[in-house]
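As the work plan foresaw, the team has encoded backbone shapes as discrete tokens. One protein thus recorded appears below exactly as we store it.

:::
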Amino acid sequence: MEVYGLLASGYGEWPIIKQIAWLLGQVMNGIYNVLSSIGIENIGICIIIFTVIVYTFMIPLTIKQQKFSKMSAVMQPELQKIQKKYEGKKDQASMMKQQEEMQIVYDKYGTSMSSGCLPLLIQMPILFALYPVIQNIPNYVRGVRDVYMPVVEQIMATDGFQSIMEKIGEASPVLMSASAYDYSQPSTLVNVLYKFQDATWGTLLEQMPGITDIAQTTMARVTDLNSFLGINIGEQPLTMLTQAFHNGSVTGIILAIIIPVMAGLTQFISVKLQPQAASSNDKDNPMMNSMKTMTYTMPLISVVFGFTLPAGLGLYWATSALVRCVQQLAVNKYLSKKSVEDIIAENQKKAAKKREKKGTSAKEINKMATTNARSVGTSKKSAISDSEREEKINKARQISQNAKPGSLTAKANMVSRYNSGQVTQLPEEKTEETESGKKKNSRKKK
């Protein structure tokens, strides 16, 4: 999860993600304003409340995904039998037949192939949009941006400020290339200063000694905003750890490692709390083996990044994982009260409603499915009675007997009598044949 987030932090300008980030930024700004109105101005507390609110709104998606996981554990044996049945068959007919049989299994349990992926696909843009907000809080929280504006104005009043800020901004820990950011804009300078650490402020004051007073005031204000349980969430834990070792401070060492360790530990617990699929013990399943590996490697990656990135991100990771742990316990308790049969019944009811919305009710589908095609033809009864039918037949016979000589009806009657033995020859046809023969003989004589 964290690796995706790190990638997403550079994609804050992407469509959809940008709009979601703006919306989440408004939530963060609202939280800061509410806390500020009661005298609490702390970014760490804002991050925690913000994370709890966002993940609380995603609970329905989490429940839906966990329901599918529970159903998947029941469906997997049947799906695996179908996969083994068509194993090695790559022709189009076999693949289509396999898909049909698998779809029958999904229909049987009232679910679909996309049920497990859809909640995750909905969550991904939200999770991607969280990181730009956490990494660039001044972009979204006006109160934090206002703290930096006095020093930004002084910086922009200094001769050659752009080249100085570009040189500092391109180096660690800021890492904002001048080719990608416009250092002539106040918003860019605010984002650069937000990433400053104590050593970076020292470098800036060496280049611009005229802003020392306002810079020190801003640094003190920023320290108050970033201080959370004695930890400066704007600093890298690795930097704090190095300074603590240099000063021989045991307390400093503990404060430096607590957030990265908590980020890795809470994520590991969160993954272990999730229900495992029935095939998770299949040693021959490469996907399950890969997931097991990720269960242990991802928390370690979180610890590594937690040391090398600002502690604010580590605080977010730890908080989000802790919230997921609590949610997972609640979801597990909720689902434990529901049997598989109850979930299947709910899924089938929802599927029936979807079919009815498309214009066909479940009763009609069942009726069509159980109707015998042979009985359709025999079940229809004639609209007239037997006596009426006999009367129509007799009337048709009378009309046929009184047919005009030479008409098609008269010729048909003659053929009918000939076939039944009532006459031995067809006069009209014979006459025509005789006359035709005479004409032929006369032509021969000539």
Summary: Residues 59-85 form the longest helix (27 residues).
